[in-house]
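Curious: can you check?
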Amino acid sequence: MSDSLPATPRPSLVRWATLFYGGLAAAALGWNAWAGTPWAFVDAAARAEGVRWLGDASLGLGVGALVVVVSRGITRTEWGERVSRELGRAIGPLRAGESLWLAAVSGFAEEAFFRGALQPRVGWLAASVLFGLAHLAPSRALLPWTGFAIAAGGILGGLYAATGNLLAPVLAHAFVNALNLRWLSRRYGNS
């Protein structure tokens, strides 16, 4: 399938998302700097231990792949198909590079904020619920997506707690978003 898109006069999703996620990441980093806490680690002890690059990256990508498989399975249900169609229409057509960029900035910014800044302060469950509520859309058809986001937030928060750092949750989140944004855009973006 070609990566050429029809010319449509719509505001750039990529531009607005970059601004939004840049602000979210800045808020997370600034909050932790102001509080004197490590932004990429659960606590000072985890920072001293450091990142296990291969293990944490492998865990994040493996969990991300599992979430993609589950999400694709959900799309085979009636409500899953309806949610996918609504999300794909909202996203619209995206090129592969746009999908990758959106996945990278959203994965980093949301994890820096919800796991790196919020979870150590409010706990795993509250951060997971707030993550899901941040994905609340004004359409009743998209309410199951909010539930899925709460569950995904719980999984990402578990990765953060288990590894002590943001590498695994950022990679899992970005992996899920990269594959699912591209899939939704190609399947429903021109609807």
